[in-house]
Amino acid sequence: MASSSSSSNSNSPCAACKFLRRKCQPECVFAPYFPPDQPQKFANVHKVFGASNVTKLLNELLPSQREDAVNSLAYEADMRLRDPVYGCVGVISLLQHQLRQLQMDLSCAKSELSNVNSERVSLIGFIPVIRNLQEFVCLYPFNFSVRHTI
Ligand SMILES: [Zn+2]
């Protein structure tokens, strides 16, 4: 499977070179990150950032940093095309809003849990009283009615 994909990659130009209609050289800076089976990825990046800017950016980075940079550019380009005004900032602010909401929900849940725990502690104080009542009812089953006493 790996050999078939590598042979197809060596035979066909990367998505960037195919889009730009140029020959894909063995040292092509785009080839590892824009495989031929993902043509839209490069099209989006080119439309938003421009191929020459992306080339400059990738050449300035260490090879170990390029994949993260391309993934970031591809995501940002995709979001910018979906939302031309806010781009990925729109998603980030939405997620921040959800995060704040969840933090408030968590705070409320912790507060409720604290209240339940304090009620449980106060109810534990009634256990000896309830046991005494049970013993009393067992001893005097015909003369005691809880409903009338309380
Ligand atoms: Zn190429």
From TrEMBL:
Organism listed in the record: Trema orientale (Charcoal tree)
Domain LOB, residue spans: 12-113
UniProt keyword list: Coiled coil, Developmental protein, Nucleus
Pfam family, one: LOB
Protein name (record): Lateral organ boundaries domain containing protein
Record localization: Nucleus
Coiled coil: 92-119
InterPro entries: LOB (IPR004883)
